[in-house]
Amino acid sequence: MRVAGGLLVFAVCAAASAAQDAPAPIEVHRISGPIQADGDLSDPGWKDAAVIDSFWETQPGDNVPPKVVTRVLLAYDDKYFYIGIDARDPHPETIRAPYVDRDQVLGTDDNIAVFLDTRNDRKSALELRVNPRGSQGDASWNEATGTEDFSPDIFFGTSARITPTGWTAEYRIPFSSLRYPKGNPQTWGILVWRNYPREFRYAIHSAPIPRGSNCLICHMRSVTGLSGLPEGGHLVVAPYATATENGEPRDRESDHPDFVNRPIEGDGGLDVKWTPGSNHAIDATINPDFSQVEADAAQIAVNQRFALFFPEKRPFFLEGVDLLETPIKAVYTRTITSPRWGIRGTGKIGESAYTLLVTEDRGGGLVILPGPNFSSFAPQDYRSIAAIGRLRHDFGASFAGLLLTDREVNGGGHNRVIGPDFAWRPNGSNLVTGQFLWSDTQTPDRPDLAQEWDGRSLSGGAVDLRWAHNETGPEGFLHYRELGRGFRADDGFVPQVGLRLGEAFGGWNFYPTGLFNRIRPQILTVYSEDRHGNLIDRNISPGIFTLGQRNLQAEIDLNLSATRIAGETLQRTNVFFFFQVDPSRRFSRIEVDGNIGDEFDFDNARVGDGIRLSSTITVKPTDHLALEFIGNHQTLDVKGDDGRKGRLFKAETARLKATYTFTARMLMRLIGQWVETERDPSLYRFPVSRKDGFFDGSALFSYKLNWQTVLFLGYGDNRSLRGNGDLVASGRQFFLKVSYAFQS
Hints:
There is one protein chain. The protein is mostly beta strands and 744 residues long. It has 1 helix and 42 strands. The radius of gyration is 26 Å and the shape is globular.
C-alpha cells in the first residue's frame, strides 16, 4: 500500500508556517528589446523584466530560507511569454544535468518546474519543466485529484547553459499554446518549483506552502499587467507518413522457421488543431497514427484478478485531459482502439470548462467484461461510434461537473453513461469529492465473442464518495464506492462491478532531523462485498511510511486479508514493502517493492506461499547515456489436491533500456524485454502450458524538432518461447515515421 509519493508528497507535505501569507502579486511588462531565448540572460529584453527572488525551502525544511539563490525573470511581447531562470549553485560541479528526452526531466536531477494557471481559477495548471541542458517536459496539474499527467504536449521553446555560478535557462512560450479567457489586462497565477537534489531532495518554491495543505497551486503568486494579448486564430496542421516492412515466419509451428518479408506498407494521416479564440481549441484527425514507439512497461499478467491499466500516450486525446479525470474512471481513451476519424472541441466559457469528443472506432483490441471478483475480456470485433462529453463549473475553490459517454455499436448495441460529480474544499485541510453515474447498455448480439453478448439489456448505477483531511500532524481519508452489477463503462476502465467498498486511512506525521525528515505511522482498512452481502475482500494494514536523505522513500505494511474465491473465504497474511533512494549523480535511482508471505491462488481457489518482487535501477554513466533495468519476479508455492507441495508457477520479466541522448532533440534507444512463465501443470485444476514467454527487442532513432515534428526510424524483433525452452523467431519489423507541424 502506497498512500503518498512523488510530487503529491510535496503538494500535501511541503512545509510552511500557517501564519505566513503568500507574496504580493507581480506586475509583468512588455519588453522593449529583443530576447534570443538561448539560455543567456544578458539580452536587452530582460532589462525591464519583473523579478521573483523570494523563495522558501518547503521540503525538507519547514519554510526556511533555501540553501541556494534562485531568481526568475518574467516578460512578454506580442507573441511570446518569456521566463528567465538564474539558478545559483556554490558548487556547479555537483549539478545533476543529464541530456534526456522530452518529459524525462525527473526529480533525480536538477530542474525547474513552472506552474502556470492562465485561467486564474486555481483548478488546474500547465507545468513546464527545464533542466540545465535545455531538455524540457510538460504536464497538466489537476488540483482536485493532485494528479500530475505528462501525457499532454504543447509547443514551447527552452534553452539552458551551465555557468561558473550555477545554471541559467530561458523559456519562450507562444501565447497560441496557452488557454486564457478574454480580458485586458490578464491576471494569471504562477508557482516556480526548483528541484535541488543533493544530500536531500530539496524542494524550493516561490511561495510558502503550509505544511498539511491539501492543495498546491492554490498558493500561487498572481501575475498582472499582461495586456493586448492575441485572442486566437492559431492553426496547426500536422500530416504524417509511415512505412513499415514486416517479416513473418512461413511456418509458425517450425522450430527453425523461414522468414517471409511482406511488401512495404505505407500509411498517412492528418492532425489539425485550430484555436479560434485564446480559450477554445478544436482538434480534428483523419486516420491518426497511434503507433507506439516504445512498448508498454513490463507487467506480470499471471494470477491477476482484474485487467491491467496502461496510460494513454496518443496526442489526439490529450487536449484538456485533466477534465476527463473523475473518481470513477468512466473515461479511458485507450478503449478507442483504431479511430478512422475524430473531432473534438475543448474550452472554457466564464467559469465553465468543457470538452466534447466524437470518433469512429474501427475495432480491434479487447473489451473488459467486469465482475465482482474477476474481470475477463472479449474481442472488439466490430465498428462503433464513441462520444465523450464533459462539463465542469467552478465555484471558488470547488466545482460541479457532468460526464456523458456513449458507444454505439455498428449492427446493434450501445453503452451510455451519464452523471454528475463534484469537489468541495471547505478549507485548506479538507476535501470532499463525489461522483454519481448511471449506465444503460445493450450488448452486441455476438455470442461468438462473449457468452453475455447475446443482445441483452443491462443497467446500473455507480457512486463514489471520498473525504480527505490533512494537517501538519494528522491526515487521513474515508472512501465509499458502490457499483451495480449491471453497470458498464465501455469507454472507461471499470474492471470491477457489483460491489460495495469502504476504505478508511489514518496516519500521524512526525518531522525529525537527521537521516529521516518525515515519519508517519499509519493504518488502512478496506472492506468490500457483493450486492448480496457476500464478502469480496477484507484487509487491515498497519504500517509506517518515511522520507529521508537522498530522496529516500520507504514503507512497510502488514496485510491481514481475506478474499472470497469460488464461494470460499480464504485468509492471507503477508508483508508489503517499498524502498526508493537516489544515491548519486551517476547512480540516480534504486526502487524496490514487493510482498512476502501468504498469497492467493486465484486460478485454483487456495492459499500458498508467495513472493513478489519488482525493482527498477537507473544508472547514468555519462550525461548522455542512461541505462534502466526493470525486473519483476513472482512465485507461488501451493499444496496440490493430492497433498503434494510444489511451485505452482514462476513468472519473470526483465527489461533493459539503453538511451544515448545526443542533444535535447536527438537520441538512440535500445530496448530488450524478456517475459517468461514456468508452471507445474499437475498443480492446476485445468490444462496449462508448462512454459511460455517471449523476447522483444527494438532499436529506435528519434529526432524531435517539437512534439509533432518528428522523425522515427526503428527496428523490432519478436521471439516466442516454446514449451521445450527454444526461443523461436515470430516476427520482425522495420518502421519509419515522418511528421511535420505547419503553423500559422
